[in-house]
């Protein structure tokens, strides 16, 4: 019985390892469709449905890097127009 379970665990682990690149590609393609939906006419049903989906995680621009960049930019004097 223990050998059977070990064998099944190994088979499942092997299959998960085989499928992981496909899952990664799927997520990249989903992100690409969502990004393109905001740029184009959105006439295709796939683009329209992905645009209405909620994204996971923080909204873009809500991180601390934005505040750091704004602070650094505000501290630098503007360059003269002639240079």
What do these coordinates show?
The protein has 83 residues and is mainly α. The chain has one domain (2-74). It is 67% helix and 0% strand. It is built from 3 helices and no strands. The protein has helices at residues 2-37, 45-52, 64-75. α1 packs across α2 (45-52). The protein starts with a helix and ends in an 8-residue tail after the last helix. 1% of the residues are buried.
Strand residues, percent? under 5%
Shape: elongated
Q: What's the Cα radius of gyration?
A: 23 Å
Determine the mean pLDDT.
Answer: 78
Q: Total helix count?
A: 3
Largest sheet: none
How many separate structural domains? 1
What structural category do the secondary elements indicate?
mainly alpha
Question: Percent range for helical residues?
Answer: 55-70%
What's the topology here?
Layout: H1 2-37, H2 45-52, H3 64-75
Helix pairs in contact: 1-2
What characteristics describe this protein?
single chain, 83 residues, mainly alpha, 3 helices
What's the quick description here?
The chain is mostly helical. The protein has helices at residues 2-37, 45-52, 64-75. The protein has one domain (2-74).
């Amino acid at each position: 019985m223990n050998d059977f379970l070990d064998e099944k665990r190994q088979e499942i682990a092997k299959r998960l390892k085989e499928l992981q690149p496909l899952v990664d590609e799927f997520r990249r393609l989903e992100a690409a469709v969502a990004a393109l939906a905001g740029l184009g006419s959105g006439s295709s049903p796939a683009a329209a449905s992905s645009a209405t989906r909620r994204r996971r995680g923080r909204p873009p621009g809500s991180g601390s890097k934005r505040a750091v960049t704004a602070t650094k930019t505000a501290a630098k004097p503007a360059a003269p127009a002639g240079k």
